[in-house]
Specification:
The chain has helices spanning 6-10, 36-52, 73-85, 97-110, 136-150, 162-172, 175-178, 205-214, 226-238, 281-288, 306-328; strands at 12-13, 19-20, 24-31, 60-67, 90-92, 114-116, 129-131, 154-159, 181-186, 219-223, 247-250, 269-272. It has 2 domains: 24-134 and 280-328, Response regulator (Rossmann fold, 3-Layer(aba) Sandwich); 136-189 and 206-272, Rossmann fold, CATH 3.40.50.2300. The chain has 11 helices and 12 strands. Helix 2 runs parallel beside helix 11, helix 3 (73-85) runs parallel beside helix 4 and helix 5 (136-150) packs across helix 6. By secondary structure, it is an alpha/beta fold. It has a 5-stranded parallel sheet with strand order 4-3-5-6-7, with helices on both faces.
Length: 343
């Protein structure tokens, strides 16, 4: 028998006729290499639900952690199967694109909810996957809204990586952007240690910024990894593109966690997208959880990255779903499962 849905997994019916939850509700989190802070954030989220008892007065959440090897699909499959046989009600992660897709496939086959932390192109067609990160299409829609509001008719799109390229393509095909001039520059080779400073089109990276400057455009979208944003802005500064005449929109959702040292005196206007309300009490509280953590756990402002906050919120969202089913008194049965026979 296939794994039943989240609702099917969570509620038990006592002999007295009173609907109740199991004493312990297991949630699985899949951790990649060097993700101690991700694990700690989820543990704190679970502790918060258990201590509060407002959502699950009769039950406690238990986080079952499995550490995965990068690029080892067989190891991932075996560990996920073991978790399912231990009757977890949901899977979270991992933050590894290839492995995340595999876990999503398993969750679809076994009918187990999966909180997917990385975007994958077929996420929308997998009914048991819940995407925590916005898709490229959603980010492109936000970029388009900004461009239209600011009436940017000419702009330079500075990007790196396949996901950023997908966002660019989604943006360019929007009807409200088609009549505007968007000049893309792929600077991936700028951050490729194995590259010989040639971007594959005969253009050396040392010349790319001069080409960007030669466009004479004043509006820029920066769509690069969080750890590269500061470098990009410093290079823009070096070629004279950080004056009061220039404006930037950072597509990363983690600009609030970027070290902008060396840029404070620049006169450019820098905007950014964000899902995090970094002025809220909840944000201050979760960030403060790591105030006394070892330096290795808080390097590069990792405790404030959006993926961590989304993971924290995912635990709360799951607890609220469980609470609703408990309140509604729904009857469910938890079946045994074995990956060997997919039952």
């Amino acid at each position: 028998m296939a794994r039943t849905s989240l609702c099917t997994l969570l509620v038990c019916l006592s002999l007295s006729g009173i609907y109740c939850f199991p004493e312990v509700i297991k949630i699985a989190v899949l951790i990649g290499p060097n993700e101690e802070i991700w694990e700690n954030m989820l543990l704190h989220a679970v502790d918060g639900i258990n201590v509060g008892k407002a959502l699950l007065p009769e039950s406690k959440l238990s986080l079952m952690v499995e550490h995965l090897q990068e690029d080892n699909s067989l190891d991932t499959y075996n560990k996920v199967c073991k978790l399912l046989e231990n009757k977890v009600v949901a899977l979270i992660g991992p933050n590894l694109p290839g492995q995340d897709s595999l876990v999503s496939s398993i969750s679809a086959a076994m009918h187990i909810p999966h909180f997917q932390t990385t975007w994958h192109h077929d996420l929308d067609v997998r009914p048991f996957s819940i995407g925590l990160s916005p898709s490229p299409a959603i980010v492109a829609e936000a970029l388009k809204d900004f461009i239209v509001r600011k009436d940017w008719s000419f702009l330079v799109y500075i990007y790196e990586g396949n996901e950023a390229l997908v966002r660019l393509q989604e943006l360019e095909k929007d009807a409200e952007v088609m009549n505007r001039t968007v000049i893309p520059f792929d600077i991936s080779a700028d951050h490729d240690d194995d590259d010989d400073d040639d971007d594959g089109n005969g253009t050396h990276q040392e010349d790319v910024w001069e080409l960007i400057k030669e466009t004479k455009h004043r509006n820029f979208i920066i769509d690069v990894e969080k750890n590269h944003i500061r470098d990009v802005l410093l290079k823009a500064k070096d070629v004279g593109l950080m004056t009061e005449l220039h404006s930037y929109l950072v597509a990363s959702l983690d600009f609030h966690a970027v070290d902008t040292k060396g840029l404070s005196k620049e006169k450019s206007t820098i905007y950014s997208l964000s899902l995090v309300d970094d002025q809220s009490h909840g944000f201050d509280f979760t960030a403060a959880l790591f105030a006394d953590a070892p330096e290795g756990l808080t390097r590069n402002s990792e405790q404030k990255e959006t993926k961590l906050v989304l993971g924290y919120d995912a635990i709360g969202m799951l607890a609220k779903a469980l609470h609703k089913m408990w309140s509604d008194g729904e009857v469910f049965e938890l079946d045994d499962i074995s990956c060997d026979d997919s039952s």
